[in-house]
TrEMBL record, chains A, B:
Keyword flag Ribonucleoprotein: no
Family stated for the protein in its record: Belongs to the isocitrate and isopropylmalate dehydrogenases family.
GO MF terms held by the record: D-malate dehydrogenase (decarboxylating) (NAD+) activity; magnesium ion binding; NAD binding; tartrate decarboxylase activity; tartrate dehydrogenase activity
Swiss-Prot/TrEMBL cofactor(s): K(+); Mg(2+); Mn(2+)
UniProt function note: Has multiple catalytic activities. Apart from catalyzing the oxidation of (+)-tartrate to oxaloglycolate, also converts meso-tartrate to D-glycerate and catalyzes the oxidative decarboxylation of D-malate to pyruvate.
Stated name of the protein: D-malate dehydrogenase [decarboxylating]
Every Isopropylmalate dehydrogenase-like domain range: 5-342
Organism of this sequence: Rhizobium leguminosarum
Length: 347, 347
């Protein structure tokens, strides 16, 4: 039987609860659709850091490279390890090492979910550059601790990096409603963002069937709230995509509903699937985290593996569950109850 | 009679329409409250650029320095002059030269205005660092035009710059409901944002009466939509403040309602007051721009000049106008009609 090797990285806090839920759903989907998962779970996390002095072992990336995909829960527990250490020790290096340059996040309201906006008609696909830009990790501090201290942080954009994410955006727009919004801030950031706009402009000639519009990040943030139905595919830099996808999560009812895929489109290394939410240490292990975002991320993994029927069935099971009012109201149902409902809706 | 010297910079597009409206209201407020305005208007704009090759004359900053305050409309007309040129030639240099390091933007719903959120209970004051950070203008491009091209943009944060804006934030929080939210992204930007967080942490000891919380920008964007009533004063870097204040404008019903003040708190140079909206070339001179944001910015100018009674009266006149349904629905009323209504509500 076709078997997919999946690495599980539950990580910290509620990451563990929701990964377990997603695993159960994925395994049932596999059983019903004629394939198998061989999963290996790795305890890399802030606890692991406290014990070993690093977020993952030296050969962590090598270990992960032999899998077909990675399912991640959440990383970070600021009271144990500063986020700037934990994220740069686990999540961000995986995205970079495996050239998962496209971070895809769908934003729409699940049935039964009430969002914060009066308007509930929108279906947005955000695509975030995931390997460089504002999160390049380049920078430093001089005269540290003195009155003259200066901190610099450098955003680095390469032509290759910008071109490939924009092409990915154009392709996605072509496969959807044909509209691409490219987000920059070229009126205030004259180097990086003007560069991005120029490449958008140039590539648009190759995709005459896609209607591309450039927006400034501030205007786009406002648009996502005032006119989300005017958007189809949105492509943005690492930071801007990060911000817009939390905003997307907000308009879709909260982080409990926001799924994501860190895709290596060339398939030269595994892709990684994770809910947008963080580890939420305050509610860790209380059994009240909403697993919908993690399960939805699992459906995106199925899609990526080519198991489109199983993916569609998982999505249908999620939708049937929230439509029944289970898992649709943040904080109302327990993780278990939501997972069971999705499992029983799945066939 | 007490006379204030005001420089008017109508700028481009609808900036001209709304500046005229604000001027009329301010002049009536002065007349009724026993002071005068001596205004001088300067045509610095994209048209000026096309004629003179620069957005303002070489002695522009010197000219403005003799005024008590500056009232600006909007700058930019991308089809005439790239924004990266026009903004860096007029708006941004004024903010920097006059050390207007605090950009203040109030976000609340005016009476009669329906926002996009189901919830309409919020009263947020955003404070944006206005002179450095992500908009320092430092960067460059190498291997331009080739496949190996790299663009870099460097955010520069100085201790002085960060400390003074945070102190300003703490003071504002103290004068309001005592809550300060400081916004960074220190989990992904390890130099600049960790630096900001450290200073926030250190200063908090000096303001024991202020409850300060640090948020990541992505989480804050979501919070402004999901729980805006949980926020009081929000302080953020140049870019993050820029994004959050457009989002703030969105939740308050649109850019037609969003006012701002670029403040030099030391009063060593003039402060500048401007609506958050841009020049909107597509509706320039059609007489349909909403002047409320510009008039509200004028009220902030009165406040800054110490004319608090007049400021309160202008705010009351704005509120009486929108409460009557005039200017409260984007696009419904003409600039003239809204201005007349505010003028007649003003006494
Ligand atoms: C935890 C953090 C580094 C991460 C990011 O900003 O990439 C998260 O916010 C996300 O959106 O996946
Ligand atoms: C026009 C632009 C440079 C400006 C800014 O980003 O500062 C504007 O968006 C604002 O918010 O005042």
């Amino acid at each position: 039987m076709k078997t997919y090797k999946i690495a599980l990285l539950p990580g910290d806090g509620i990451g563990r609860d929701v990964t377990e839920a997603a695993k159960a759903v994925l395994e049932k989907a596999a059983a019903r659709n004629g394939f198998l998962f061989a999963t290996s779970s790795y305890p890399w996390s802030c606890d692991y850091y406290l014990e070993h002095g690093s977020m993952m072992p030296g050969n962590g990336i090598k270990t992960l490279s032999s899998f077909d995909a990675i399912l991640l829960g959440a990383v970070g527990w600021p009271r144990k390890v500063p986020d700037s250490v934990s994220l740069h020790g686990l999540l961000l290096p995986i995205r970079k090492a495996f050239v998962q340059y496209a971070n895809i996040r769908p934003h729409r309201l699940l049935p039964g979910v009430q969002g914060p906006l009066r308007s509930d008609k929108f279906d947005i696909l955000c695509i975030r550059e995931n390997t460089e830009g504002e999160y390049s990790g380049a920078g430093g501090r001089v005269h540290q601790g003195t009155d003259s201290e200066v901190a610099v942080e450098t955003s680095i954009f390469t032509r290759k990096g910008v071109e490939r994410i924009l092409r990915f955006g154009f392709e996605q727009a072509r496969a959807r409603r044909g509209k691409l919004a490219s987000v920059t801030k070229s009126n205030a950031q004259r180097y990086s963002m003007v560069f991005w706009d120029e490449i958008t402009q140039r590539l648009s000639a190759e995709y005459p069937d896609v209607e591309v519009t450039s927006y400034h990040i501030d205007a786009m943030a406002a648009r996502m709230v005032m006119a989300p139905d005017s958007l189809d595919v949105v492509v943005a830099s690492n930071l801007f995509g990060d911000i817009l996808t939390d905003l997307g999560a907000a308009i879709q009812g909260g982080l409990g509903f926001a799924a994501s895929a860190n895709i290596n489109p060339d398939r030269s290394a595994p892709s990684m699937f994770e809910p947008v939410h963080g580890s939420a240490p305050d509610i860790a292990h209380l059994g009240i985290a909403n697993p919908i975002a993690a399960i939805w991320s699992g459906a995106m993994m199925l899609e990526h593996l080519g198991e489109t029927t199983a993916a569609a069935k998982v999505m249908a099971a999620i939708e049937a569950t929230t439509a029944r009012g289970i898992g649709s109201v943040p904080g109302k149902d327990r993780t278990d109850a939501i997972t069971s409902a999705v499992l029983s809706a799945l066939d």
